[in-house]
Amino acid sequence: MIYILLPSYNEENGLQEVLPILKEISASSRDPFRVVVVDDGSKDRTSEVARSFISELDLKLITFPQNQGVTEVFKKGFKFIIEDSKEPEKDICVVLDSDNTQDPRLIPEMIRRIESGDDIVIASRFEGNGGMIGCPWTRQIFSYGVSWIMRILVGLPNVKDYSIFYRACRVGLIKSSFDRYGDRLIEGRGFASICSLLLKMGNLTRKTAEIPLILRYDNKQGMSGNKIFRTIRGYLELIWQYVISDRYRKMERLP
Predict the structure, then answer these.
(1) CA distances from 62 to 15, 22, 42, 85, 86 (A)
(2) pTM of whole model > 0.70?
């Protein structure tokens, strides 16, 4: 089973672009797809758009009555997938943004890399011919800064993009990570929690890889973009915890 986790907040327009592409990809895949949309208390028609595809896709809709934030969205989505998976060591989970900035057509290559032996595959803006189009310069500087700081401090094998959450991994790795860290697996302020998630999962595997992604910020739909100053504060707190308290390295790494 291939699970596609779509965190969504006010993404009625983005989902109308992304879900038809997922339908095409699933139709040509030898493995069944299950799309999991987590609506984080949207004020638009996000849930209605998701429901309109239930007859066309194997789609599970999870809704929050009020906005809970990205941390709770990921916890809820991952926990559903862990419970639903019948073969966690074989099944694959891909996390994809719902705002139409990340090309879903990279998913088959990400799946192939997992099936070839990698445990985590990241769609990276900093790998090969990857990049960003239409992204404000402040966000570009921030993304490059996070990339270089994490490469210096952490240096996960073959990883350059720590702040994007377009990633594929084995469901079994998600389960093992929750078994080790519990609800602390995903914690932190805003989207910094996605980086801390990668750091902790990196304690359990060295089989990490990247493929190039061109982030099309000019295609962005909806209003779910992160708040830059809150995100910067979250990353500063994460870096402080990493350097001062050794919080993300206290579990012994695999050889």
Answers:
(1) 14, 18, 12, 16, 20
(2) yes
